[in-house]
């Protein structure tokens, strides 16, 4: 609807005006201090959060803050995750540490945002026990950062602004890209699936898709600015477009993105197995740009547990789907997420998971021990196994997954394949690191000038989860 667009444009305009004002204000402060004002941005969680952090950093750079990796910056922002308990604990640990920086620099501003802040109990705890925090906001109003900073500078107390949900998508604000040559692009926000273990639908709100023309326009702009690889982001990209006024399938969106001249690679995350269509498989099979990688979280191999998780597929249908994908796209790399110790999981159920792992032979798998999230349906289910049994299962699964991945990831040894050079190797500065279409990394000797370019590399030696190669 037109009105919706107008509201968004008005909001973006308002934020830009605030940024102008703040910029002048911070410049003055910087002159008084005789040094630039710095910001440090810390991000926990998934690619959605990473993308939000790029938007926050874009705003901070626009108003004149200079990036530093040190936490004793003038402005510190922590973008939080709450998908598992340990994500929360890490944030509280870090917060305690920050008190000493604030003592040294009373002007320091500490901001917290992201998924954890959408939980009222968390905000209560911070209000009571971490009074050195200045600004708290959530996942729905990232675009308001400048306004919240202005509010903080004009008041003395903590500024808290959490939205329950939103139907708004505010476009066209600055974003600070981590890489010049690749970039994540939101295609949808939120999630409607309500898997019984998962807190994401509660903290990210209902599913909202961006219009295809807005997505394509953003990608064209990115390409004009040097980007050659995009990662389309959504909690369940396969249900993209269903709620739009003019519904569009994810496969159709991919075809539209494929047509963008100058774009070389398209990735996407994450695919829910229940919505993965034959149309998508066909589009992937014939595409020249879509990467040969599909992340297809299975969570469990037991049909009973999958039902309890509200995943809407069975062991058999998952296996059939994996088979169909491999037949249609033989060089595809399949990766997955698995949860061990879901409350209703018995030893037999766990054996089913191991069985699927052996049958599908994933190129890699993220394995998690189930973490109880209050407010989710699974939080009230009774455990069928002890902590010790669950830990034992986790170790067995990890071993199985790693042994298989080591073999499947070595299958291209000796071949020559194209990589996008992403940077210098973090361990060995004589080497560059490039990414294959199938998402595996290759380390090989070369000059920094090659960063951001595509190179053909011989995969000389398979090292398990990466290759050592040489440029051809
Ligand atoms: N939308 C994605 C997943 C996002 S969360 C999807 O459905 O595929 C990333 C992963 O975290 C999930 O795939 C799941 O394996 C894991 N996860 C989510 N909630 C969890 C919990 N309560 N305990 C343990 N792992 C969890
Ligand atoms: Fe969570 Fe399920 Fe939504 Fe993924 S699809 S974000 S696991 S509720
Ligand atoms: Fe975490 Fe929020 Fe992503 S809970 S996994 S950062 S959507």
Describe the structure.
This protein is of the alpha/beta class and about 475 residues long. The protein is built from 13 helices and 19 strands. The chain has helices at about 1-35, 45-60, 85-105, 120-130, 145-155, 200-205, 210-225, 250-260, 280-285, 305-310, 315-330, 345-360, 385-410, and strands spanning about 40-45, 65, 75-80, 110-115, 135, 160, 180-185, 190, 210, 230-235, 265-270, 295, 335-340, 365-370, 415-425, 430-435, 440-445, 455-460, 465-470. The strands form five sheets. Strands 2-1-3-4-5-6 form a six-stranded parallel β-sheet, sandwiched between helices. The chain has a five-stranded mixed β-barrel with strand order 15-16-17-19-18. A three-stranded parallel β-sheet has the order 7-10-11, sandwiched between helices. The longest helix is centred in the N-terminal third of the chain and has 32 residues, at about 1-35. The protein is globular and about 65 Å long. Residues about 1-5 have low confidence and may be disordered. The structure holds S-adenosyl-L-homocysteine (SAH), iron/sulfur cluster and FE3-S4 cluster (F3S). Iron/sulfur cluster (SF4) binds near residues 193, 194, 195, 235 and 236.
Major sheet attributes: 6 strands, parallel
Mean pLDDT: 94
Strand segment tally: 19
Distance between the termini: 53 Å
Provide the low-confidence segments as ranges. Answer: 1-5
Oligomer: single chain
The general outline is globular
Structural class: alpha/beta
What ligand molecules are bound, each kind once? S-adenosyl-L-homocysteine, iron/sulfur cluster, FE3-S4 cluster
| Radius of gyration of CA atoms, rounded to a whole number | 23 Å
């Amino acid at each position: 609807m037109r009105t919706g667009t107008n509201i968004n444009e008005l909001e973006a305009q308002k934020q830009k005006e605030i940024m102008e004002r703040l910029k002048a204000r911070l410049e003055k402060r910087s002159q008084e201090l005789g040094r630039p004002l710095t910001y440090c941005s810390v991000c926990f969680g998934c690619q959605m959060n990473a993308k939000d952090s790029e938007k926050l950093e874009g705003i901070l750079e626009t108003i004149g803050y200079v990036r530093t990796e040190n936490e004793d910056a003038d402005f510190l922002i922590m973008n939080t995750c709450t998908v598992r308990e340990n994500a929360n604990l890490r944030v509280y640990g870090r917060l305690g540490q920050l008190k000493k920086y604030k003592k040294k620099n009373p002007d320091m501003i500490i901001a917290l945002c992201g998924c954890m802040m959408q939980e009222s109990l968390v905000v209560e705890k911070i209000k009571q026990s971490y009074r050195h925090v200045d600004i708290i906001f959530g996942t729905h109003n990232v675009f308001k950062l400048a306004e919240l900073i202005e509010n903080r500078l004009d008041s003395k107390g903590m500024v808290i602004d959490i939205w329950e949900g939103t139907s708004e998508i505010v476009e066209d604000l600055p974003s600070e890209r981590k890489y010049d040559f690749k970039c994540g692009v939101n295609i949808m926000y939120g999630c409607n699936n309500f898997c019984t273990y998962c807190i994401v639908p509660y903290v990210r709100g209902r599913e909202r898709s961006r219009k295809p023309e807005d997505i394509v326009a953003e990608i064209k702009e990115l390409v004009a600015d040097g980007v050659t690889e995009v990662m389309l982001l959504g909690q369940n990209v396969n249900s993209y477009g269903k709620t739009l006024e003019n519904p569009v399938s994810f496969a159709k969106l991919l075809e539209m993105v494929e047509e963008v001249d100058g774009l070389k690679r398209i990735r996407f995350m994450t695919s829910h197995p229940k919505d993965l269509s034959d149309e998508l498989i066909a589009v992937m099979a014939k595409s020249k740009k879509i990467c040969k990688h599909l992340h297809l979280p299975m969570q469990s191999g037991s049909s009973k547990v999958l039902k309890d998780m509200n995943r809407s597929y069975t062991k058999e249908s998952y296996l059939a789907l994996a088979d169909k994908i491999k037949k249609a796209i033989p060089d595809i790399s399949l990766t997955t997420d698995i949860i061990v110790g879901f409350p209703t999981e018995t030893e037999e159920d766990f054996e089913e998971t191991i069985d699927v792992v052996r049958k599908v032979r994933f190129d890699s798998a993220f394995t998690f021990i189930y973490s109880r999230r209050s407010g989710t349906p699974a939080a009230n289910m009774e455990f069928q196994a002890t902590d010790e049994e669950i830990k034992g299962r986790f170790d067995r699964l990890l071993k199985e997954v790693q042994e298989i991945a080591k073999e499947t990831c070595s299958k291209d040894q000796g071949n020559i394949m194209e990589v996008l050079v992403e940077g210098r190797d973090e361990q060995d500065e004589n080497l560059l690191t490039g990414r294959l279409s199938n998402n595996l990394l290759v380390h090989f000797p070369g000059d920094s000038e090659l960063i951001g370019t595509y190179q053909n590399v011989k995969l000389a030696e398979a090292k398990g989860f990466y290759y050592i190669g040489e440029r051809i």
